[in-house]
Design brief:
With 622 residues, this protein is an alpha+beta fold. The chain has 18 helices and 32 strands. The radius of gyration is 29 Å and the shape is globular. The C terminus is likely disordered.
Length: 622
């Protein structure tokens, strides 16, 4: 009997009549059946494969379209495919970006640096665009008060519908239109509808993906972070003396002694001293100048959590409902604590109020509120603290000014990275579906076939090859394709073979492909942005000549070609391929364009060269 949603209740009723050992055997077989069904689906369909290899995958509107076309390529139904991606999308040059070497800006981050994804893990910067001048600027602000400035075309992965856990890509300009009251939605064909006639009175803010604590390596710190946090909160500014209620001191002092500090009694029961701490505070530059040294904000997760515990055990409190609060008169210190919380993936809100005793004003005071478990050491606070899901939402403001912007490309499948002091989750420049996941899936289905992968530089192509090789060699991959593995004597990043006779070869535009064949040829970004915006036609002619005399000639009978690119000129590789097809009756191509032009005809990314309608590839079939 086949198990369906309709007959499941009846089957479960029959199972309950079985002896317990037979029930266990039934459920074991049922789990094996579900695993096999899921594996078979990932073998047959591209998007389920992506979801297996990438559990945190957030689907964009273009993923479904690309997945369907890749399945047609793999099955042999489609032989020639061009996917045109929109031009790049950028942040202002002074946008702070955390790297594994500390804070940099968009201007100073370089390929080879490691920034951070929303899961807190480092990710390699594999590319960087030219600086774009005179772009229309927008401020994107989260509901906890941090912001970044970006151009109109910067893309965001957001959730608009609170009832459906579905994240989709939208541009800054589209989200701004939505905030202005326009009705914005993703249509079934993947396009974006902006309807100004169907206005929304109070649109809900767009939700960002959640973020985790950034994983930085531990630092060699001169003062234990818990000790420093405690002193910053309740320490005497010019002395190594801590003010603490006696009940708390009976817990805090033994903890400090475990951490290597000797505490001493003072004249009152409300204070205690710490031997040898004053010299270290002076050497650290905080004695008489309370602040968090930058090295402490860039320590490991454990070190930063210890710093937070010290701050909370001194100047923090926790409500009966589990909400945490941290109060301070110093706005500089409160902003550093905000940075600390953001780096730990903790959303927080800031309130400013006037400190008064009766009618006497003592100036402004500041209070942070947030939710976080294990952020205190004192049991009376720790046992109350709760961790609830606190999502971040964004609003977009048009600044009516222009500025210089730039973008990076990161080596993450979801293309997400964290930007700004507030660790805002944003999207990088392009999809790697065709360069990374598609070749891996194709070689799993057809491990005896051959793939040639190309990009505008050999380094980038080999980088893709390394990622595909590592995925094919992973345990997760073998759970989907158990009969496919790497050949032991052929594992170079840019040139490797499967155990079934298949081959993968990575090459830059212009490289030699003599002796290589391909059942699938994938060309991803044949021109970088600098080449694409060049006025020299020889650059485009060189790429086309290489294509026609090299990899095109190495295609096996019945083989397929996939070109993924951003269109910069009618003379680029795609333009010349389509022109030759039309004039000489050559290959017939299907072109999928994710348009850079709005339905109104207005360029979606103002400021780019060649954004007129005639400069973009048309959507066509055949």
């Amino acid at each position: 009997m086949q198990i369906t949603a309709e007959n499941l209740p009846k089957i479960m009723g029959l199972v309950k009549t079985l002896p317990s050992d037979q029930q266990q055997e039934f459920f074991k077989l049922l789990e094996e059946f579900e695993r096999a069904k899921t594996r078979e689906l990932a073998q047959e369909k591209f998007i389920p494969f992506v979801q297996r290899m990438w559990p945190g995958f957030i689907s964009g509107r273009h993923h479904k379209v690309m997945g369907e076309k890749f399945e047609e390529i793999a099955s042999g139904k489609l032989k020639r495919l061009i996917i045109c991606m929109p031009p790049r999308h950028c942040l202002t040059l002074n946008t702070p970006i955390l790297t594994t070497q500390g804070w940099k800006t968009m201007e100073t981050v370089q390929p080879g640096d490691h920034v951070f994804g929303p899961d807190g893990l480092p990710t390699l910067v594999v590319g960087k665009s030219e600086v774009h001048q005179d772009r229309d600027l927008y401020r994107v602000t989260t509901n906890d008060g941090t912001s970044v400035i970006t151009d109109s075309g910067h893309r965001w992965m957001v959730r608009l519908d609170r009832k459906r856990n579905l994240f989709r890509e939208y541009t800054t300009e589209q989200l701004w239109a939505r905030d202005q009251g326009a009705f914005v939605r993703t249509k079934t064909n993947g396009g974006i509808e902006i309807n100004w006639d169907r206005k929304v009175t109070v649109p809900r803010a767009a939700m960002l993906p959640p973020i985790q604590a950034v994983q930085l390596p531990p630092k060699d710190l001169p003062i234990d972070p818990y000790m420093l946090g405690l002193w910053l909160g309740d320490g005497t500014s010019m002395q190594a003396i801590i003010t603490s209620h006696p009940d708390d001191a009976t817990i805090i002092r033994p903890e400090l002694e475990k951490r290597g500090y000797q505490t001493t009694d003072q004249a009152t029961c409300m204070t205690f001293g710490v031997l040898d701490l004053k010299v270290r505070l002076q050497e650290l530059g905080v004695l008489g100048n309370k602040h968090i040294p930058q090295v402490y904000l860039e320590g490991s997760v454990d070190q930063r959590m210890d710093l937070l515990r010290g701050l909370m055990d001194s100047d923090g409190n926790v409500s009966q409902k589990g909400q945490c609060f941290f109060s301070q008169k110093s706005v500089a210190l409160i902003n550093q604590v905000r940075e600390l919380l953001w780096s730990l993936g903790i959303r927080n809100s800031l309130q400013e109020s006037e400190a008064k005793i009766y009618d006497v004003s003592y100036g402004s005071t500041y209070r942070l509120s947030f939710y976080a478990e294990d952020c205190c050491f004192l049991p009376r606070k720790r046992d109350r603290a709760k961790n609830t899901v606190r999502n971040r939402f964004i609003r977009v403001e048009k600044l009516n000014q222009k500025g210089a912007v730039q973008c990076i490309e990161v080596a993450r499948e979801d293309h997400l990275f964290l930007a700004g002091k507030g660790m805002i989750c944003t999207l990088n420049t392009k999809s790697e579906f065709g360069s990374y996941l598609f070749p891996a899936w194709f070689l799993g289905k057809y491990p005896q076939k051959k793939v040639i992968q190309s990009s505008h530089t050999a380094e980038l192509a080999v980088g893709f090859g390394r990622k595909v090789r590592n995925l094919v060699d992973s345990e997760d991959y073998r759970k989907v394709f158990p009969d496919v593995s790497l050949r032991a004597d052929s594992k170079a990043a840019g040139r490797w073979s499967t155990s079934r006779g298949g081959e993968y070869f990575a090459i830059g535009i212009g490289g030699a492909v003599t002796g290589k064949g391909a059942d699938i040829l994938v060309i991803d970004d044949p021109h970088d942005e600098q080449e694409g915006q060049s006025a020299d036609p020889a650059i485009f002619d060189h790429a086309y000549e290489w294509y026609t005399s090299g990899p095109r000639q190495r295609l096996q009978p019945g083989g397929a070609i996939v070109i993924i690119c951003t269109r910069w000129s009618k003379r680029d590789l795609v333009g010349q391929v389509l022109k030759a097809s039309a004039q000489r009756g050559g290959d017939e191509w299907e072109v999928i364009e994710f348009p850079a032009i709005m339905p109104s005809g207005k360029p979606l990314w103002p400021g780019s060269r060649g954004t007129g309608l005639e400069g973009l590839c048309p959507t066509r079939r055949g």
